């Protein structure tokens, strides 16, 4: 009882403080607004400020200066006990006016104030739409309010149904455009009509929407299907059934599905599916995304939201297509040869599953029986076989469901038929990282060519057989091919073009690169020796990573030591295996300085190391860095490319090692 008394006392104190604050706010006078403190946009109002008795300045009424402020901006003033001002052009929303009293030698004192609300009457609500989510959901309606009234506006939503049933709900927020009745329409009379209407009211007017009439089937939106499953009968992609659960009144479904890496959906409409549908066009070994939507009636109502996605991978099927197989031969000795087979992976659509292994069968045709059968998980395989006999190879790919059709290839001498060799083979860079290979048909009738094979691999001076091999096939009527895969810039490639005809083949080769620059360094001279009256220069090859493309030629420079004359040089066309060359134009009893450079199509490298030599008549050549009979002085000179072009050229006979 004491607690209740304290609560009542607290409430009384709060109310008293609020009343006192209101009294103190306008204790000295009043502000009146006519015709109203709530006006229509564009209206004019009169604002009056009046002092209460004995609330003016102490000296005399003529000293009373009343000032009217609009927010914090002074708009009018008057000497006396009252002030009146007419105001127009007020903006939408709330504007605050304050009346203050100014006395001589004192600060301004607030008398009273007033807020004026400027707005518009509500527009007619339109686009009234109602929906019930699910058969057990509640009816909710939305509408367009029209423009903002800037005033307190009350919206009333009324729903009328059969048997004079009426439901009504209100919201007292001028931003209101949604109300939920909290009632559930049942399917007992699915064709019964219901009418919804929205009325908006504020102090400046009211407006009602046109009635919106609908039935149960029009507004009930089914819940999205759930519990989606997929079944592949006998693990076969051709026997796929999708299952799901729906609300009881659903008559129409639409099913959409797509591969997970695709943006395009396949859509199927199904009537009276009863929670299942068979799909017949799925691809093997592919992850798909499935979604389902529902509708209560074929013509009325709206679709449900799409269900949550189901992701599932289809089963494997036996591979289709055939492997692209190529090979190379290497002679080991007079009776044996090594056959290296290579093949490309099947595409995803051809593999139709995870390739587990490859089956290779090697057969000698004259014996007519399988010699070797092998299973490998790699895309290459090598074997040593006799150089005699006719050999054929079959290669197929296998997944968990079976094997692809085997690719048969006859092992033949790919370059054995000279008349089938393509003519004028050349390679030029094309595009960003491509090499365009061109050729002319062989001298033999072009109609004899069944196909061309263009093969490329990185050029290694050591002849490394482990360098990856690449190839592409071209139709017999083509005379060019673009190499765009597995090509690096600033790398030289050895390119072969094979013309195949039955059991015969002819080939031609060239070098090519997609991009090139001048080499980063010149060859390193490692030895100078006398051989049959001439000087033999030996050098180390430029490292592959410093060649910057295909080398075209070497240059050997020499000049007399301490001479200011231009150096002489000879040019040597580049050959992969060459690392020495003779020169025979040096004089006895003269000390020379020698160095080398290398050239690509882009230019000349910087010079390599320098070596000094002195020919002692019929005596042996001497090459040194330290002093000997011929005083050796290391001369380091770098000559520009322009300077080199002015040198005298000496032909170098092709008598290299």
From TrEMBL:
InterPro entries: FN3_dom (IPR003961), FN3_sf (IPR036116), Hematopoietin_rcpt_Gp130_CS (IPR003529), Ig-like_fold (IPR013783), IgC2-like_lig-bd (IPR010457), Type1_Cytokine_Rcpt_Type2 (IPR052672)
Membrane-traversing stretches: 621-644
Principal cellular location given in the protein's record: membrane
Alphabetic keyword roster: Disulfide bond, Glycoprotein, Membrane, Phosphoprotein, Receptor, Repeat, Signal, Transmembrane, Transmembrane helix
Localization, UniProt: Membrane
One annotated GO molecular function: cytokine receptor activity
Domain named Fibronectin type-III: residues: 224-317, 421-518, 519-618
GO cellular component: plasma membrane
Membrane disposition: Single-pass type I membrane protein
Signal peptide positions (record): 1-21
Family statement: Belongs to the type I cytokine receptor family. Type 2 subfamily.
Protein name: Interleukin-12 receptor subunit beta-2
Species this chain originates from: Saimiri boliviensis boliviensis (Bolivian squirrel monkey)
């Amino acid at each position: 009882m004491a607690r209740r008394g304290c609560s009542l006392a607290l409430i009384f104190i709060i109310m008293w403080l609020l009343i006192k604050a209101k009294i103190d706010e306008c204790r000295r006078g009043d502000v009146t607004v006519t015709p109203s403190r709530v006006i229509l946009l564009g209206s004019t109002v009169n604002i009056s400020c009046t002092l209460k008795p004995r609330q003016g300045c102490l000296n005399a009424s003529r000293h009373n200066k009343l000032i009217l402020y609009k927010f914090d901006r002074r708009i009018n003033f008057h000497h006396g006990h009252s002030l009146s001002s007419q105001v127009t052009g007020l903006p939408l929303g709330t504007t605050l006016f304050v009346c203050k009293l100014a006395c001589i030698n004192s600060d301004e004192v607030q008398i009273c104030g007033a807020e004026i609300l400027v707005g518009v009457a509500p527009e007619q609500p339109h686009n009234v739409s109602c929906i019930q989510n699910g058969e057990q959901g509640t009816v909710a309606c939305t509408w367009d309010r029209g423009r903002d009234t800037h005033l307190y506006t009350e919206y009333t939503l009324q729903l009328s149904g059969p048997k004079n049933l009426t439901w009504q709900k209100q919201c007292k927020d001028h931003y209101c455009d949604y109300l939920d009745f909290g009632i559930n329409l049942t399917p007992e009379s699915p064709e019964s009509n219901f009418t919804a209407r929205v009325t908006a009211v504020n102090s400046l007017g009211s407006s009602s929407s046109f009635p919106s009439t609908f039935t149960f089937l029009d507004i009930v939106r089914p819940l999205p299907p759930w519990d989606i499953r997929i079944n592949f009968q006998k693990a076969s992609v051709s026997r796929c059934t999708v299952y799901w659960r729906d609300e009881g009144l659903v008559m129409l479904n639409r099913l959409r599905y797509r591969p997970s890496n695709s943006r395009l959906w396949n859509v199927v409409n199904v009537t009276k599916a009863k929670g299942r549908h068979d799909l017949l066009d799925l691809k093997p070994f592919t992850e798909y995304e499935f979604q389902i939507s529902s509708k209560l009636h074929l013509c009325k109502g709206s679709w449900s939201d799409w269900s949550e996605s189901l992701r599932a991978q289809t089963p494997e099927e036996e591979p289709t297509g055939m492997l692209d197989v190529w090979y190379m031969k290497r002679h080991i000795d007079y009776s044996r040869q090594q056959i290296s087979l290579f093949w490309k992976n099947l595409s995803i659509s051809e593999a139709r599953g995870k390739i587990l292994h490859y089956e290779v069968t090697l057969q000698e045709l004259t014996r007519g029986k399988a010699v070797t059968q092998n299973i490998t998980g790699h895309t290459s395989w090598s074997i040593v076989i006799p150089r005699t006999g006719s050999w054929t190879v079959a290669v197929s790919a296998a997944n968990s469901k079976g094997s692809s059709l085997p690719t048969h290839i006859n092992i033949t001498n790919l370059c054995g038929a000279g008349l089938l060799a393509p003519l004028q083979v050349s390679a030029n860079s094309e595009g960003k990282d491509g090499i365009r290979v061109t050729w002319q048909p062989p001298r033999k009738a072009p109609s004899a060519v069944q196909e061309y094979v263009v093969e490329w691999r990185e050029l290694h001076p050591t002849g490394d057989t482990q360098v990856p091999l690449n190839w592409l096939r071209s139709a017999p009527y083509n005379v060019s091919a673009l190499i765009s895969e597995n090509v690096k810039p600033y790398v030289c490639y050895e390119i072969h073009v094979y013309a195949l005809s039955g059991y015969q083949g002819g080939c031609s080769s060239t070098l090519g690169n997609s991009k090139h620059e001048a080499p980063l360094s010149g060859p390193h001279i490692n030895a100078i020796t006398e051989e049959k009256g001439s000087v033999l220069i030996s050098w180390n090859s430029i490292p592959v990573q410093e060649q910057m493309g295909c080398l075209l030629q070497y240059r050997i420079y020499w000049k007399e030591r301490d001479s200011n004359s231009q150096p002489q040089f000879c040019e040597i066309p580049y050959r992969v295996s060459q690392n020495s060359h003779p020169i025979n134009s040096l004089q006895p009893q003269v000390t020379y300085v020698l160095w080398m450079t290398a050239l690509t199509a882009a230019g000349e490298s910087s010079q390599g190391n320098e070596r000094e030599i002195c020919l002692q008549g019929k005596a042996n050549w001497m090459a040194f860095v330290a002093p000997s009979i011929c005083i050796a002085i290391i001369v380091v000179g770098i000559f520009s490319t322009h300077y080199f072009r002015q040198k005298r050229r000496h032909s170098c006979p092709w008598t290299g090692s």
